[in-house]
Amino acid sequence: MRENVAKNVVIEQPSEAIGHNGEIKEQIAELKTQMESLSEAMPEDKLSMVVFSGDLDKVLAAFVIATGAVAMGMDVVMFFTFWGTPVLRDRQKKAGGKDLMGKMFGTMLPKGTGKVRLSKMNMGGMGTAMMKSLMKKKNVASLEEMLDLAGELGVRIYICEMSMGLMGFKREEMIDYPNLGFCGVAKFLGEAKGSTVQLFI
Amino acid sequence: MSEDVKVDKVLDLKGLPCPMPVVKVSKGIKEVEVGQIIEVLSTDPGALVDFPAWAKTSGNEIVDTVQNDGVIKIYIKRKA
User: Fold this and answer.
1) What is the pLDDT of residues A161-178, one digit of tens each?
2) End-to-end CA distance of chain B
3) What's B2-77's CATH class?
């Protein structure tokens, strides 16, 4: 009886092992495909930022974080929308063919980085002027310098088409920036979905 | 300890506030070879916390930190 069992075991072992091998191979293949889809879904070391505000302090903070993130080795993309949109207008450029509302928004909103004001203590422009001179004294980079630096570091900037249309801004009046694009919400979400850090400023 | 460190490049970032120290360091470190060491001079008190955070994320190593008369000297070895 015992001999029989022993024989059976000896005979069965190779076939069993082959069976296991096949199973293991299958499992490995399955794991491989799982891993591949996982790495596709894994967020990149990337920062996606919405710049909604058009205030000097807030936009400055956005650029400090953006340039800092590049220094940390991150890919950075900024989306300017709503009050953030006029900040990226070029002071020198003009765009024609605007309706009344477009012209109104055009004159009432700050034209470019040089015209943006503090969100607090603006005091009719005095506070902003004081803050700017203080920044200069303390060697803090100005908004213009930060924008240049961001461009140099490869920070990508997208401007919301809907905001532009709403406020009557034209593409030809926006700044010359090395990585400038125009987009909608899906582009932001597509980038944000694959990012490790997302911010709304 | 800092006397023993062989420095391959010095980055003088005195007087520069956030975010310039890390921005300049991330550029400056690429100017030395992997394994070489840069000495960074900063007057930004935030640098004491910021540089270790930067080094950890970028995969470089802080070899030593020395503070003297308001000047912070940080020795960073390029690892990546």
Assistant:
1) 999 999 999 999 999 999
2) 23
3) alpha beta
